[in-house]
């Protein structure tokens, strides 16, 4: 007897063999046709039972959500939409699902809103949409590791709990073992961190970059892929308080090399899911077409999901300096007609999402890499250009998503770095170890950060970032 | 001109070709022989310079730790220990390393203690030992992902910040956005968590298992691989406050299947590093031989590092019930002679590290899987056996390490689970979502947790767990 997963049996040609499969009932029609799914694929396996030979009390327990074991023979299917089916000789109920209780959940067979599904995040992975999204997410993760490992990058786990808050990438969560009801204080009323678990103030990391740099300057080329955190009160479809970030860092690599790396990397991982997630992507594409129908035409996607992914894989990203971009924006229709919320007037302006989307979606109509930003709007560790006013930063902008990658060549010159830190009031004592890397064999090096959930959003076409991570953390929401 | 990494050039046979390589000086002998390393391998590339043609001020700057670019021709090496060398035509200093400053760091060419190296965790990856450990760690990580992905497991990122503290696996860190100097209180003096970022009390996860189960019961087979936390004041060589854990979870799988999975998985990842980290393992094996020489004979490793790894890969793990193990321990010499700190008297005793090590290292002399533990000493979610007093738990014990895996078949029966939770005072309201999985198509399922750093310890032979993670977090230590 062949014991198999649904995914395996669906492509099997071992007709007339006895098979056994376990899974959950997705639907049961006419007391005859069970659609069985076990999570191995978006597709269900049809199991046909002979209801005349099946006891009535068993038939009643074959309900949506129930776990069952089906034994039978594999047959070429005469129905449309599937190649094989099982003609069941026996069905065993492994775990019931009371239809009255199922009715109260998102497992009930009707259309539920994405908001409703979020409230039952522990069950939503049993729906077609979330099964597909989470399988694609998993494959994307593997593609990330595969790309870097095949290219001899070393994976580094930078710390999650950090005593350093110098990066200034945003508000941080505090980590403590104190009883919050009764926090130990010093005589002057300040918190006595000496009594805390780590003996100092600690936070959740916002980025592993600085630690990653210390490793790149020893191992040559490294990447991180781990959770990062922002305690920002942003209730948007693009922000999470807890998200996964990918941060490669490469010694002896300048900004051009960094752009090449980012572009090649993104193309590799998208190609990987195009090749390995065909059924899930086809489903998600269909879903998006359906979703689009309810939108005004101007907001519909100009390309289907798979075409969009192929387009990114097959085309060069457009590389444009910040200065060029400002010129394009200044002369653009929405700027002249004052349709932008923020009108671009002068060089030095920080670009808003509306500007980034104009450049990508209207002007260039392809992914864009903007580089050489004004120093004043970028972080302290980015390398100053000879012009003294721009830094070797780059952002990659994607259609529908906006910024998906932010990176830079790092300031490798100790004196320039120290001067910049002094200007911004960053304590050298705090970052003594970071400065050490510039003292002992410093070199040109570069890296970038890619928010993994934004990549999953782009790949799956899900419009809300809360729908591409298993249990999203957002302001006022840490359920499960 | 061939631009290459040290690892590539060392195996190149393109003799007499012009090559260029960048890296850091590991040593410089006789004003002639530079040992160059770029992190791509444990091995250095010898670059031979003609000091008569090299300006003196350049010679002076070729110091340990400096970053340099060497151009020259590739030659078959006449010296021992290397196949090729570069006869340099030019050396360029990319980043100096002032010898006076280097003297104060662990980069200085002498033997430093592992404790000293820990204080300079940002530099220690430039040493042979830590370069090797971190490369092996990276490859092990990839082997973990490869094993599960090749076996159609889906990677799930369970939440790091959690509102649930029901697992009771130990003390948890609190996560908050409150100003700890001034925590908002209710009228009764309790903390007003409604004002906190998530509107409730939140902690850092100790395990992704419960959330992982919800996903396994939809996707079939999943795994997590992410950071977990314990706020325990354990200053030992086996404990970290922040460590990475691997947790697979499989629907329709019982404890026997779980043991098979764990054993096959561990053998796969060890085999992978044996095949892919030969040079690093050879170095680490040598290191261990050296370390052993300073130990009394009774404490030395009975096997070399690579033999030990091969032994695990090639032999079956011994499967022994808790009840059998207790009999063996009760009748053992150290128990009879009262050499154990905890004498085993009765069935039901919790095994200590000394007992586990006796079973593995003295009695069976191979990895051991203990199963069917007394219910009273195990967690609430483990499946109760028909005897009413043992649960379907398993621990895998490794030589030198002790427990490396803890797993179980999960209690899939709603009524039994609820009864157990009531006995232990675990709030059903708190775990409503976990109980839901037992209401809607519950099924036999199993999983385990493997502490990744313990696996890295075993694989590299490092005796302190702080030496197998980039920036260890332990009580009073969150530097970097």
TrEMBL record, chains A, B:
UniProt GO MF annotations: asparagine-tRNA ligase activity; ATP binding; nucleic acid binding
Domain Aminoacyl-transfer RNA synthetases class-II family profile: 134-472
Chief localization: cytoplasm
NCBIfam families: asnS (TIGR00457), PRK03932.1 (NF003037)
HAMAP family with a match to the protein in the record: Asn_tRNA_synth (MF_00534)
Enzyme class of the recorded protein, top EC level: ligase
Keyword line: Aminoacyl-tRNA synthetase, ATP-binding, Cytoplasm, Ligase, Nucleotide-binding, Protein biosynthesis
GO CC annotation terms, alphabetical: cytoplasm
Top-level taxon of origin: Bacteria
Subunit and partners: Homodimer.
Name this protein carries in UniProt: Asparagine--tRNA ligase
Cell compartment(s), UniProt: Cytoplasm
Classification via InterPro entries: Aa-tRNA-synt_II, aa-tRNA-synth_II, aa-tRNA-synth_II/BPL/LPL, Asn-tRNA-ligase, Asp/Asn-tRNA-synth_IIb, NA-bd_OB-fold, NA-bd_OB_tRNA
The organism of origin for this protein: Salinimicrobium marinum
Catalytic activity annotation: tRNA(Asn) + L-asparagine + ATP = L-asparaginyl-tRNA(Asn) + AMP + diphosphate + H(+)
GO biological process, one term: asparaginyl-tRNA aminoacylation
EC annotation from Swiss-Prot or TrEMBL: 6.1.1.22
Family stated for the protein in its record: Belongs to the class-II aminoacyl-tRNA synthetase family.
């Amino acid at each position: 007897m062949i014991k198999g997963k649904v995914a395996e049996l669906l492509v099997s040609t071992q007709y007339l063999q006895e098979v056994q499969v376990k899974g959950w009932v997705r639907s049961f029609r006419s007391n005859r046709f069970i659609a069985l799914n076990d999570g191995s694929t978006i597709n269900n396996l049809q199991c046909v039972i002979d209801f005349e030979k099946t006891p009535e009390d068993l038939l009643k327990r074959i309900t949506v959500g129930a776990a069952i074991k089906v034994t039978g023979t594999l047959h070429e299917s005469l129905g449309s939409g599937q190649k094989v089916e099982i003609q069941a000789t026996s069905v065993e109920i492994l775990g019931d699902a009371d239809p009255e209780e199922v009715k109260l959940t998102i497992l009930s067979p009707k259309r539920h809103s994405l908001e409703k599904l979020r409230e039952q995040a522990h069950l939503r992975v049993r729906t077609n949409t979330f099964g597909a999204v989470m399988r694609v997410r998993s494959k994307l993760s593997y593609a990330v590791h595969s790309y870097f490992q095949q290219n001899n990058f070393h994976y580094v786990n930078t710390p999650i709990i950090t005593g350093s808050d110098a990066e200034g990438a945003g508000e941080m969560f505090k980590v403590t073992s104190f009883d919050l009801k009764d926090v130990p204080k010093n005589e002057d009323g300040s918190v006595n961190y000496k009594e805390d678990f780590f003996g100092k103030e600690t936070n959740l990391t916002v980025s592993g970059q600085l630690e990653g740099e210390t490793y790149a300057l020893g191992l040559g080329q490294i990447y991180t892929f781990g959770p990062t955190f922002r305690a920002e009160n942003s209730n948007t479809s693009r922000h999470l308080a807890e998200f996964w970030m990918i941060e490669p860092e490469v010694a002896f690599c300048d900004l051009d090399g960094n752009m090449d790396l980012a572009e090649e990397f993104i193309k590799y991982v998208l190609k990987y899911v195009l090749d390995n997630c065909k059924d899930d992507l086809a489903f998600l594409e269909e879903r998006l077409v359906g979703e689009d129908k309810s939108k005004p035409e101007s907001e519909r996607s100009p390309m289907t999901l798979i075409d969009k992914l192929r387009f990114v894989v097959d085309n060069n990203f457009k590389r444009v300096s910040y200065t060029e971009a400002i010129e394009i924006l200044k002369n653009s229709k929405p700027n002249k007609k004052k349709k932008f919320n923020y009108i671009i007037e002068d060089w030095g302006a920080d670009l808003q999402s509306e500007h980034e989307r104009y450049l990508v979606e209207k002007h260039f109509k392809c992914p864009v890499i903007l580089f050489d930003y004004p120093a004043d709007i970028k972080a302290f560790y980015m390398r100053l250009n000879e012009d003294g006013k721009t830094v070797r930063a780059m952002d990659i902008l994607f259609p529908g998503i906006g910024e998906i990658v932010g990176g830079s060549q790092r300031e490798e010159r100790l004196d320039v770095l120290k001067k910049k830190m002094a200007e911004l009031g960053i304590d050298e004592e705090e970052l003594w170890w970071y400065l050490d890397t510039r003292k002992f064999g410093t070199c040109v090096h570069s890296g970038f950060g890619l928010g993994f959930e934004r990549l999953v959003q782009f790949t799956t076409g899900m419009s809300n970032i809360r729908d591409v991570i298993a249990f999203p953390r957002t302001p006022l929401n840490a359920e499960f």
